[in-house]
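W.,

You were right to be curious about this one. When I first looked at the sequence I had no strong expectations either way, so I just let the prediction run and decided to look at it fresh. Below is the sequence, 312 residues in total, followed by the output.
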Amino acid sequence: MNWSKILTEFLLQAQKGDLKTASYPKQWDEMRLRVSFGMGAPARVPWIAFVAPEMQVSNGFYPVYLYYKDLKTLILAYGISETQEFSQTWPAEIMNSSTTITAHFDKEVPRYGDSFVFKSYAIEINNEKVSYSYSETKEVTTDKDIESDLQTILDYYKKAVSITTTSPKSEWSQGLFYMEKQLEDFIIHNWENSELGKKYDLIIEDGELISQQYRTEIGPIDILAKDKLTKDFVVIELKRNQTSDDTIGQLARYMGWIKKDKKDDGVKGIIIAGQYDKKLEYALKMVPNTEVFLYEVDFKLNEFKPQDLVTK
């Protein structure tokens, strides 16, 4: 597939307010490809991210195209998640030698100002035709340049991730990167088809989803939603590698923050866990307006038989 063509289609679509992403590839050069034009309303900064299997868009670092429409500029960046701070990031050589996006524009930008610039392209769109040039040199950028720039940062990313995942201090090498780390993204992506989606709405502002890893002054809430009927806030916490007491304490703390900061006396709490235990049952008796959802993981193995192949 021609990457330059995909990138041009992305830039054209960003002008039209079309938020659909189903037509884009799901993978590129062994990376998961994620595209966003916003949720519910067009985002001010649409993006395309290339994420290693071990990473998440909401929690990690990765190459990303960020299209600053108002500034007519496309940045190919050393991206850093602004949803949740991850324990590892780009190597020091990048952090020390590259310019942040905020510094590049010499002013505050709508989003992602702390990520670092790898390449900056000035964009001109005229009658469904997109022209690229390097922002610094004004040199016209060819399709070959675009593809070469992307391959360069992807190759570097693969090496950076390889070093990170084998580090003794890495979360992954210590065995903490289990399936539950993916649960949060799975819930968000499948919200409308879940039991949660029937009763609660995710929160979207300026075309951007802010429910996931919702920032507060006392730490990030895993998922913050709103009751469809009452409009009260709903604090959702995932029980990962922690005790029931820790989970309940965390949930109560965030519910208290919502009650005070958002002036919502009807705030609800939800814990999502792999199993229910007695400690959780007793602790819940002291935290009103809280419920528990249990998740199940279902694996299926089907034997492959040569006769299953159909030849034409």
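Here's what jumped out at me. Residues 180-294 form a domain with the Trna Endonuclease; Chain: A, domain 1 fold (CATH 3.40.1350.10). And, maybe more interesting for your project: The helical segments are 3-16, 92-97, 101-105, 143-166, 180-189, 195-199, 244-261, 278-284.

Coffee later to discuss?

I.
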